[in-house]
């Protein structure tokens, strides 16, 4: 097997003296959709942020394309073309949709701006209708689309999505997951997805990891985990399905 | 028809009756409130005895003002407001065709400013123009420039800076000291002052990189005070509270503005007057202010300007998009400070005298107030706010007729801060986003559209 695109090895992250990640190993290969599921406070978002260097891992290392990025500042990690749709979307509320997308493309010096905007608009036609509107006036689903669109503008090699389904209606979640699938199939985009919505995430993913108290307790293909009785009991039954 | 007319007539008389009733009530309340405060005044006479002065006339004025005010409010203002509200609700807002004036506001304003000195000279003569060009023109434009400079830091990058006057001071003292110690000319020292102020901007920027909002405001406030205290206490260099005087004037391509043989007036064959120098200064500060505006407009369309605005919105998102927030913040501080420095050296050349007195916290507060009132980020709004606020306080000096009403000891200037505060409250109630609350987008695929501030929630935009 070729070397993984993203390789997280034995990462421990602390908030002060509190250990949030306890030796996490995760691999993401080119062209995969990998998801990380887990309960509240398991450390999913912390792993996402640790990959982005804020907070930095205290021990362990993170490799991207074989390069050690553990100690790089966030903006330099982003320049390696890892893009992120952060938790809570974090779009720029006073800027228009188009300006938000422009910010996503700032690494590229806007060379492919028009072309990439068209791509985002074909993926999310709603954004095209709303291009002159302020980000803050969009609905939650549209903001999530904008957040993903903004991340795509950087032409990423790896897209990190932190809870894209957060606070959205089921129909909209379905749309967003379909868009992610489409990106993966058509563009070959590698996606690392953090989700609480375990059912949707597992169905979408090639592989998945289960995070419990800052430790990966299970991993496998999406299908296997969906069928796994432990996973079903903990994350699926009692919720949807 | 007749029926309808009679109902409106009866409604009208009912309204008048209600207004009269409420007027009487408010008159009584005013009487009750002020009878002891205004009607009676305790004083000491020559033998240190307490005496009561009775001021029934003044009390009557208070009561009458309250009654008339209430009557007008109920009888006219309230129905009018209700009507307007109803009309607004009835007719959905249609996109108004922008008038010629509002479309070309900035061009018209620049033209008017360029024509301002000749028009004033034509109206009130060379000597009479002094006051209008200097007190109104130059004074206002200094604040316009300062506010535009601060706008880069506060309005665009969203970094609340309460010590902006420090950079103004750095600029002013750079020129004052370097010109009096080394005899360098204004045109050499103008960029030097800007660079020095920018350096201080970076010096301030470094320790506050991790601070936001209130914390940043406090540190910048302290920074402003530190600079002022250094200026006061470093007496060997800055001459302390005495200030630096006799600062060299600026020249126009080497032509001096003085009464000498090769001075400006003599060369042009004009009668000797200090007004020409003031007019020259007017164009100088106009040029500097327009430079500030031009640079701001250009920068907003460039990656660094976009990064400033994105930084104001969400720092974490910025970082995850590959923006180096450290350099972005430092460039905002440095650029803002540079224009503060330019304005400062202009201030020194205009006054011919600088002392730490001119760089107190109040100045920072006034500049910040102008930026906030104008609508953060909007150059036009800030310009209007500066004209209203600074022009307004200057006009207060002119209102000598008020002395006839309030007695010869009344000095209207003393009330300027009171009026400043009142104006701020009024504007913030009316237009919580300042005069111009809308933000002009910088990215377009087809046509440009301004986005009204009223579309976004308060605190979200």
From TrEMBL, chain A:
Annotated Pfam families: ABC_tran
SMART domains in the record: AAA (SM00382)
Gene3D superfamilies (alphabetical): P-loop containing nucleotide triphosphate hydrolases (3.40.50.300)
UniProt domain ABC transporter: residue ranges: 6-238
GO molecular function annotations of the record: ATP binding; ATP hydrolysis activity; branched-chain amino acid transmembrane transporter activity
Swiss-Prot/TrEMBL GO biological process terms: L-amino acid transport
Alphabetical list of InterPro entries matching this protein: AAA+_ATPase (IPR003593), ABC_branched_ATPase_LivF/BraG (IPR030660), ABC_transporter-like_ATP-bd (IPR003439), ABC_transporter-like_CS (IPR017871), BCAA_Transport_ATP-bd_LivF (IPR052156), P-loop_NTPase (IPR027417)
Keywords, comma-separated and alphabetical: Amino-acid transport, ATP-binding, Nucleotide-binding, Transport
Source superkingdom: Bacteria
Family designation: Belongs to the ABC transporter superfamily.
Name of the protein this chain belongs to: ABC transporter ATP-binding protein
Automatic annotation (TrEMBL), chain B:
Residue ranges crossing the lipid bilayer per the database entry: 23-40, 56-77, 108-128, 140-160, 180-203, 215-234, 275-297, 330-353, 365-393, 414-430
Compartments where found: Cell membrane
Keywords: Cell membrane, Membrane, Transmembrane, Transmembrane helix
Cell membrane found in the keyword field: yes
Membrane topology: Multi-pass membrane protein
Residue stretches making up the High-affinity branched-chain amino acid transport system permease LivHM N-terminal domain: 19-116
GO cellular component entries: plasma membrane
GO molecular function ontology, one term from the record: branched-chain amino acid transmembrane transporter activity
Plastid in keyword set: no
This protein's name: Branched-chain amino acid ABC transporter permease
Gene this protein is translated from: livM
């Amino acid at each position: 097997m070729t070397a993984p695109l993203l390789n997280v090895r034995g990462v421990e992250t602390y908030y002060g003296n509190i250990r949030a990640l306890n030796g996490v190993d995760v691999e993401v290969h080119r062209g995969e959709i990998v998801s990380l599921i887990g309960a509240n406070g398991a450390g999913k978002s912390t792993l996402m942020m640790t990959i982005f260097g804020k907070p930095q891992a205290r021990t362990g290392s993170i490799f991207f394309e074989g390069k050690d990025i553990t100690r790089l500042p966030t903006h330099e990690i982003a320049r390696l073309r890892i893009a992120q749709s952060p938790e809570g979307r974090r779009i720029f509320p006073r800027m228009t949709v188009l300006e938000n997308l422009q910010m996503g493309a700032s690494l590229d010096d806007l060379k492919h701006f028009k072309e990439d905007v068209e791509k985002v608009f074909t993926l999310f036609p709603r954004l095209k209708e709303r291009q002159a509107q302020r980000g803050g006036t969009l609905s939650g689903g549209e903001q999530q689309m904008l957040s993903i669109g903004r991340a795509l503008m950087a032409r990423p090699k790896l897209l990190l999505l932190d809870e894209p389904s957060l606070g959205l209606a089921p129909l909209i979640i379905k749309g967003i997951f379909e868009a992610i699938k489409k990106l993966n199939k058509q563009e070959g985009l590698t996606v690392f997805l953090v989700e609480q919505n375990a059912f949707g995430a597992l169905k979408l993913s090639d592989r998945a990891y289960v995070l419990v108290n800052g430790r990966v307790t299970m991993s496998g293909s999406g299908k296997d985990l969906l069928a796994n009785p432990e996973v079903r009991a903990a994350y699926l039954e009692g919720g949807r399905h | 028809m007749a029926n309808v007319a009679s109902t409106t007539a009866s409604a009208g008389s009912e309204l008048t009756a209600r207004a009269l009733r409420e007027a009487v009530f408010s008159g009584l309340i005013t009487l009750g409130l002020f009878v002891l405060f205004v009607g009676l005044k305790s004083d000491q006479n020559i033998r240190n005895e307490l005496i009561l002065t009775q001021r029934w006339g003044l009390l009557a004025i208070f009561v009458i003002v309250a009654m008339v005010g209430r009557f007008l409010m109920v009888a006219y203002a309230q129905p009018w407001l209700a009507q307007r509200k109803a009309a607004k609700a009835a007719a959905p807002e249609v996109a108004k065709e922008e008038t010629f004036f509002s479309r070309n506001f900035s061009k018209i304003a620049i033209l008017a400013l360029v024509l301002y000195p000749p028009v004033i000279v034509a109206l009130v003569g060379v000597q009479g123009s002094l006051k209008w060009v200097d007190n109104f023109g130059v004074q206002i434009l200094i604040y316009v420039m300062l506010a535009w400079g601060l706008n880069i830091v506060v309005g665009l990058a969203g970094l609340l800076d309460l010590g902006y006057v420090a950079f103004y001071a750095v600029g002013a003292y750079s020129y004052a000291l370097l010109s009096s110690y080394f005899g360098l000319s204004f045109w050499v020292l103008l960029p030097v002052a800007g660079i020095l102020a920018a350096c201080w901007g970076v010096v301030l920027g470094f320790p506050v990189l991790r601070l936001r909002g209130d914390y940043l405001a406090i540190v910048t406030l302290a920074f402003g005070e530190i600079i002022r205290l250094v200026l006061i206490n470093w007496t060997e260099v800055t001459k302390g509270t005495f200030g630096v005087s006799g600062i060299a004037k600026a020249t126009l391509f080497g032509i001096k503005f003085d009464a000498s043989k090769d001075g400006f007036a003599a060369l042009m064959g004009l009668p000797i007057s200090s007004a020409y120098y003031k007019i020259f200064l007017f164009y100088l500060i106009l040029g500097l202010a327009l430079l500030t505006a031009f640079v701001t407009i250009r920068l907003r369309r460039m990656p660094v300007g976009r990064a400033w605005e994105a930084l104001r919105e969400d720092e974490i998102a910025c970082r995850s998009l590959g923006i180096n927030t450290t350099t972005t913040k430092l460039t905002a501080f440095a650029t803002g400070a540079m224009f503060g420095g330019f304005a400062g050296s202009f201030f020194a050349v205009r006054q011919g005298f600088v002392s730490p007195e001119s760089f107190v916290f109040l100045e920072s507060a006034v500049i910040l107030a102008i930026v906030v009132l104008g609508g953060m980020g909007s150059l036009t709004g800030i310009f209007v706010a500066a004209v209203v606020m600074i022009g307004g306080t200057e006009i207060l000096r002119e209102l000598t007729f008020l002395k006839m009403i309030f007695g010869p000891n009344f000095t209207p200037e003393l009330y300027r801060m009171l009026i400043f505060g009142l104006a701020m409250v009024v504007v913030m109630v009316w237009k919580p986003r300042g005069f111009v609350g809308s933000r002009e987008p910088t990215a377009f695929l087809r046509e440009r559209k301004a986005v009204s501030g009223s579309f976004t929630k308060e605190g979200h935009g």
